[in-house]
Each structure stands twice: as structure tokens, then as C-alpha cells.
Design brief:
heterodimer; A: 301 residues; mainly alpha; MetI-like fold; disordered N terminus; B: 310 residues; 13 helices; globular; disordered C terminus
Chain lengths: 301, 310
């Protein structure tokens, strides 16, 4: 009883207290807050705007007037060349490569991590925590450490220069975070459901497949989104494991395009902007899962 | 409580359960062991040889590669650059992210839009961000022109060409990309702190700074530690952004451990030496991880003891 009393008064006062900041919010503090936020937002958006608008300029415009904001006149050829013209083949091929790697690697990660997280969450067996720790270990060290031997390994497996040679290691590197996020989620599904499923004749796999996975759809969406962003932006691994222009993913393509056309800035900007569109569109649709996944993975972890 | 929720399958014998467990676990374990664990062990193995990556592994040289790394001026620059990024991240990037998280931890019109914008760079690839920044930072390009326009022309530097400031420039670009990530983590941590606690401290007479220092920060501890840890591991393996913007130059000024490792392995065909650099990188990571674990563990023990006494 005695411990309840202060809590009650605290909550009672809180509701009263909430009205005070409402006034303050519109005062000097509120203006300062907006000033800071707008400045930061401006800093974030300048490079993006610079790239988008720069793609509509000619190199002459970029050189003669680097500070001008709007193109004069607007030039479409840079973008049309990348999308439909002479640079389109490279762009679409790289997009397709990125998509293939992302699909294989994320599919594998989410599939295998779900299976593993299921036994880590719901079964008792000797060595379970040690095994789990082995996966957690993967979160704790810099993945760049494995790069050189990985190159040798992939070469020895006959997978160098093969998209699969990138997708498999990437799936492996994404396993730890995926398992760490999925395990508590799988654990929170009530045992009564499992009992009921078993009475109805479900095997372990039947329960996993028909009951657990459908219930875990939000968590699966979250880990998928996280894995997609990581794979899509990966740079070091593809740089090492892919060995020709026809295998390049988008980040490698953008990098090489900027070297190849180093004297044609406007074209580089156009290519870069077109290459960032998939990520931005994806972000617009999946922001909630992405943010939710990062925070559940890190804050609880 | 947790045992009531996740009651284990107890109805069947252990051997049969082990078969089920193996079938579920082995695919993930095999992939992970083959592509993550094995390479780490191999790095340690290769690091004891002088090896170009192609011939048979025969030229055993003990710890010579590590001695070489220690005496390699370029690699020492790399280590100090990695440490510089760690220090700058902890001193500037995380406090900045925390400040913004505090600003966003209130309801006000436009909050969602700001959050969306601040987090946007995180989804853009390093290649894209790096290339756009390189173009903006070229001499007499957008940044220089902008500074001149607002009357700050005196501040203009050769941003990516001057060996004294190029690492700071790279740090700024990294922060541009990653502060939003830390802000989102810290914002989630802040939202996990019940408003009532802060309000109660306020009623007890604490001012805003006092509440933040003595109530909010300690309660934010676990999130802050995760943020610090991820930031340190990220700084240790810094590669992509440097590779895209400067390639480690000019004159090694932006060399990092991962860049040095990459160059040794793939440009100079010194797989043995490169592997030794990888092991050094691993040891740094281990140090950070152990410090983190120890810190977290000690805090947990402290918490338990206080709770017991209280």
C-alpha cells in the first residue's frame, strides 16, 4: 500500500504537469528546437538535392556555377541515358545482380535463422546456450576480419565470380542478428498453442510451419527488411568476391561509373540518383519495420 | 514466468529430440561455421606464413608478420586513424545523436518528418553517399562556393586532399550517414523511460539539466552502451566510405586497418601479412567486446546487489 501512494500522486501530477510544457513549447524553446532540427535536416538533404538537381545540369553548368541551385536549362539526357540510353545496360544489369543476391541471401538468412531460432527459443537440449553464444559472437567482432580467407574459400569452392559466392557469405553474416531478434519473439508465443497443435497431431516442424511462422509474420518482416538493407548496400564483400563488370552490384557499379566518367560529373550524379531510388522507395514503405528491427535488436540485445 | 510461456517439449525422449534439434539447427550452423567461423580461424593460421595466396602454404615464418605489422608505418597510421574515429564518434557523433533524440522525444508538429529525414542516410549505400560527397567537396565545388557565399570563404580547405584534415572530413561524412542510426536507437531508449520518473524528479525540485543528468542518462545507460559499442566496432572496421572517397590516401592519411588489410591481400598479394592485420583487427574488436561485456556485467551485478540491499 505504502508503495502505491507516491506512484498515484506522481501520475496525478503528471497529467497536470503536461499542460505546462505545452505553453513552453510555443515559446523560445520551441523555436530553438525547430532551428536546430531544420539546420540538421538541411545538412542531410543538401547532398541528396545536389545530386538530384546536378543530374539535370550539364557539366558546363556545374563547373561555371557550382553554387546555383536550379539547373538552367534543365537537361534530361543524363537521366534518360542511364535509364534507357547508352548507360542503361550497365544500370539494369547491376540492379538485377543486386536483386538476385538480395533475394537469395535474405531468403536463406530468414529461412535458416527461423529454424535455428525456433530450437533456441522452444527446445531444451544440452549445449543450447553455448551454441547460441556462438552465434551471438558473430555480432561482436568486425566482419572485415574474415574477408581474406573468405576470398580463398570462395575461390576454392569454385564460386568466385558467381553471384552465389556473394549471396552465401552474406547470408551467413546476417544470421547472428536475425537469430538474436527472432528468438525472444518465438519464445513469447504461448506454450498452450504448441500443446494444442501437438494434440492435433502436429510434429515439431508442423507447429513451426503452420502455427509459429504465420504468427511471427511481423518479426519476419522486420528481420527481412534489416537483411535487405544490409545486403543491398554491401560493398566490401562484393568488391572482393566478384571479378567482372557483368557481376557488379549497384554499389560497385556506382563506384566504377564514377571512375569511368570522372570527367562527366553530371552523368555520375544522374547515375547515382537513379541507383539510390530503389533504397529510398524501399525505405518509404518499410521504415516502420526497419526502425522497429534496429531498436528491438539493439536496445534489448 | 518465462518457463510458463516457453514450456519445452518434454514429452519425448532425449535422443529423438536431439534429431529434431539437429535438423533445425544444422543448416544455419553449417552456413555460419563455413563462411564466418572458419575464415576467422584460417586468418589466424595464414598469418603465420609468408604466402601470396596461390602457392601451397609452406613458408612458415612464425610471428614475423606481426613484427612486420608493428614496424609498418602505414599500418600504425591506420591504427591511429581507427582510434581517432572511435574517439571522435564517442566525443561528437553520439552526443550529437543523443541531443537530437532528446529534441525528438516530445510530440510536436513535424516530428515524424524530421525522424524520417535524419534516418534516411542510413539506407543509402556508402558508395552513393561517398561519391556525392566527393563531388561536393572538390575544390571550388558546392561546399567551397557555399562557404564563400555566406562569407566564410576563409574556412575553405582542400577537404579531401590535405593530409591534415582529410580524416576529419571522412569522419564528417561517416557521421552524416550514421548519426541517424544512433539517434533512432537512443530515441527508442528514451521512449522506454516512463515519463512519470522524470516528472517526479522535477516535482522534487530538480531542474531540466539535473533531471537529464541524474535520471534520464542513468536510465538510458543500456541503450547508450549498445550505441557506444556498435559505434566502436563500426569505427574499427571502417572500409567502405574511405575506399570510395579517398582510397586511403592521400599519402596514407586516411589509411585504416581494413584498408591496409585489403591492400596487403589483394594489391600486394601478401595474404599471410594481410591475415596478420586481420588478426590484429580481431584483437581490437575482442578488446572492445570484452570491455563492453565486463562493463555490462558489472552494472548488472551492481544492480542486483542494490536491489538485494534495498
Amino acid at each position: 500500500m505504502s508503495s502505491e501512494l507516491p506512484t498515484l500522486t506522481a501520475t496525478a501530477r503528471t497529467t497536470a504537469g503536461r499542460r505546462r510544457p505545452l505553453l513552453a513549447r510555443r515559446g523560445l524553446g520551441g523555436i530553438a528546437r525547430y532551428a536546430v532540427l531544420v539546420t540538421v535536416a538541411f545538412t542531410i538533404l543538401v547532398p541528396v538535392a545536389y545530386a538530384v538537381l546536378g543530374g539535370f545540369k550539364t557539366n558546363g553548368q556545374l563547373a561555371a556555377n557550382p553554387g546555383s541551385i536550379l539547373p538552367d536549362p534543365w537537361v534530361l539526357t543524363n537521366y534518360t541515358d542511364v535509364l534507357f540510353g547508352k548507360n542503361a545496360a550497365a544500370f539494369w544489369r547491376e540492379t538485377a545482380n543486386s536483386l538476385i543476391i538480395a533475394a537469395v541471401s535474405v531468403g536463406l538468412t530468414v529461412g535458416l535463422a527461423s529454424l535455428a531460432a525456433f530450437v533456441f527459443a522452444r527446445m531444451v537440449f544440452p549445449g543450447r546456450e553455448a551454441m547460441y553464444t556462438l552465434f551471438v559472437f558473430g555480432l561482436l567482432f568486425p566482419s572485415a576480419v574474415a574477408i581474406l580467407p573468405l576470398y580463398i574459400l570462395v575461390r576454392n569452392l569454385g564460386l568466385s565470380g558467381n553471384l552465389l559466392g556473394v549471396a552465401l557469405p552474406q547470408a551467413a553474416f546476417a544470421l547472428p542478428l536475425t537469430i538474436v531478434i527472432l528468438r525472444p519473439f518465438f519464445r513469447s508465443i504461448p506454450a498452450e498453442l504448441e500443446d494444442a497443435a501437438r494434440i492435433d497431431g502436429c510434429s515439431s516442424f508442423g507447429f513451426f510451419w503452420r502455427v509459429l511462422l504465420p504468427l511471427a509474420r511481423p518479426a519476419l518482416a522486420t528481420v527481412s527488411v534489416l537483411a535487405i538493407v544490409t545486403t543491398w548496400n554491401a560493398f566490401m564483400l562484393p568488391l572482393i568476391l566478384l571479378n567482372g563488370a557483368d557481376q557488379w552490384t549497384l554499389p560497385l557499379g556506382v563506384m566504377n561509373f564514377s571512375t569511368e566518367y570522372s570527367s562527366d560529373q553530371a552523368r555520375v550524379l544522374a547515375f547515382t540518383v537513379v541507383a539510390l531510388i530503389p533504397a529510398v522507395v524501399f525505405y518509404a514503405f518499410a521504415e516502420r519495420q526497419l526502425v522497429g528491427g534496429l531498436t528491438s535488436g539493439a536496445v534489448k540485445g | 514466468m518465462s518457463s510458463a510461456i516457453a514450456r519445452p517439449t518434454t514429452g519425448r525422449g532425449l535422443p529423438r529430440r536431439l534429431v529434431t534439434v539437429s535438423l533445425f539447427l544444422l543448416p544455419a550452423l553449417a552456413l555460419y561455421a563455413l563462411f564466418v567461423l572458419l575464415p576467422i580461424v584460417q586468418a589466424a593460421h595464414y598469418s603465420l606464413y609468408k604466402w601470396n595466396g596461390l602457392e601451397p602454404l609452406t613458408n612458415f615464418i612464425g610471428l614475423d608478420n606481426y613484427v612486420k605489422a608493428f614496424n609498418d608505418k602505414g599500418f600504425r597510421t591506420a591504427v591511429s586513424n581507427n582510434l581517432l574515429v572511435i574517439v571522435l564518434s564517442l566525443a561528437i557523433q553520439i552526443p550529437f545523436a543523443l541531443g537530437l533524440a532528446v529534441l525528438l522525444n516530445r510530440r510536436f508538429p513535424g516530428r515524424a518528418v524530421f525522424r524520417l529525414i535524419f534516418f534516411l542516410p542510413y539506407v543509402l549505400s556508402e558508395a552513393i553517399a561517398g561519391i556525392v560527397f566527393s563531388l561536393m567537396l572538390r575544390p571550388e565545388a558546392l561546399v567551397d562556393t557555399g562557404l564563400t557565399t555566406v562569407g566564410l570563404g576563409a574556412l575553405i580547405q582542400d577537404w579531401l586532399g590535405d593530409t591534415h584534415i582529410v580524416m576529419i572530413t571522412v569522419f564528417f561524412i561517416i557521421s552524416w550517414k550514421y548519426f541517424g542510426f544512433h539517434m533512432i536507437l537512443l530515441l527508442a531508449g528514451l521512449q522506454g523511460i516512463p515519463r512519470e520518473i522524470e516528472e517526479a524528479a522535477r516535482i522534487d525540485g530538480a531542474d531540466a539539466v539535473g533531471v537529464f543528468r541524474h535520471v534520464t542518462l542513468p536510465l538510458l545507460g543500456p541503450t547508450l552502451r549498445v550505441s557506444v559499442f556498435l559505434s566502436m566496432i563500426g569505427a574499427l572496421q571502417l572500409f567502405d566510405m574511405v575506399w570510395v572517397t579517398t582510397g586511403g590516401g592521400p599519402l596514407n592519411a586516411t589509411n585504416t586497418m581494413a584498408i591496409a588489410m585489403f591492400r596487403a591481400g589483394f594489391e600486394k598479394s601478401q595474404m599471410g601479412y594481410g591475415s596478420a592485420l586481420a588478426v590484429v583487427l580481431f584483437l581490437f574488436g575482442l578488446l572492445v567486446a570484452l570491455a563492453y561485456q565486463r562493463f555490462v556485467l558489472r552494472r548488472d551485478v551492481e544492480g542486483a546487489v542494490t536491489a538485494y540491499n534495498g
